[in-house]
Write a structure and sequence with these properties.
Elements: H1 2-16, H2 25-56, H3 67-75, H4 79-94, H5 96-103, H6 109-113, H7 116-120, H8 128-135, H9 140-155, H10 161-169, E1 173-176, E2 186-189, H11 192-206, H12 217-233, E3 248-249, H13 252-255, E4 263-265, E5 270-271, H14 273-280, H15 307-317, E6 333-336, E7 351-354, H16 356-362, E8 368-370, E9 377-379, E10 385-387, H17 391-396
Antiparallel strand pairs: 1-2, 3-4, 4-5, 6-7, 8-9, 9-10
Helix pairs in contact: 2-4, 3-4, 4-5, 11-12
Amino acid sequence: MDLAFDLGDRAADALGAVELHTLGRQQLATAVVRVQGIIDRFTLAHAQMVAEADRTGVWQGTGARSMADWLAGKTNTSYGSASGLLALGETADASPEVAAAVGAGEMSAATAATLHDAITTAPADADVSSLVKAVKGTGPREARAAASRWKELNSAKQETEEEREDRRYQRRSVRSAPPVDGMVSTTVTLPVLQSRQFINAISQVAGKPTEGDERTTEQRLADGLIMLCDAYAKGEVKGGRERPTVLLVFEAESYAGHTDTPARTANGDNIPASVARHLAENAVLQRVLRVGSKILDLGREARLASDDQYRALVARDGGCRWLGCHIPAAWCEIDHLQPYAAGGATDLDSMVLLCSHHHHEKHRPGVQVIGNAHSLLIRLANGTVIDCALRRAQAAA
């Protein structure tokens, strides 16, 4: 073990001694990626040590509440970081395939950590190796979504949709941490749908940002929650019929009960099919045809996309079309692939959803648009071609 520590120290010293200003742009890019791979391997080894130390009870009798609590105190790191290490170690121990993938550079440590719940509480007879294989080369966000869906599909063999929803609902909670500098951090854990209703409600109470409003989105939502609580304290909260709108995209086959494909919110959350069917009983339903709908293709008759078109874009694009971007539809802007002023039509085939950043990137000088909304390529000024395929196609890839 001492030899391993000595070699690790030497490697760290060698990297620290590199004169970064002497490296070219490509060398720096390569170095950044390779060092991250090395860090991931060290992180994995560290995480496995932490998990083994937890099993042997090194923290017991020290006054610490848990292994993560003990590690955070000993290393002056956050409790969250220590918990993450322990989770990664438990995941690697439960699945040798995960450890091998991280060691081979096929999966980042961050991605592996998101598989903890799915792997350590995998349903009986579930093929864990298939999940590991599916998420190789993906980021934490995609892996977390894949793990959630994988566990849901495998759990279906042991429990009904109603039982799953009840199990999740029983995990709801509101927790507050001790005050720090006069501020308290409160963690709200809710099922996805109730969480969106909660956020939409306080957002509606806070109102839309006005000119000169320098608040962040988080501050605006906090103000909405405070205002709602103040109104309740004054006895001014009334009603119950008017609820903040939650837009769900739901396939007809699943709505009819032929499949159990989840519905999707404009924020990219999956809503179980059973919940979506129940909501549909009292919801405003709108049919969106993916082809052949003249109502949704307004041509040159309108400058801005209609509400109907926005819903159709949410159903088709799901979020920002730029490859690798995860901004959900609710935070995107509608872009005319050919500017309206230059003759572009306000038709679905001529519009896509882009986040604010990539919307600006698309309009930078020298950028070219190739194809239409169904087969979209964007060539940057430096010649790089971005394949902005539909999200379903990206997910399949």
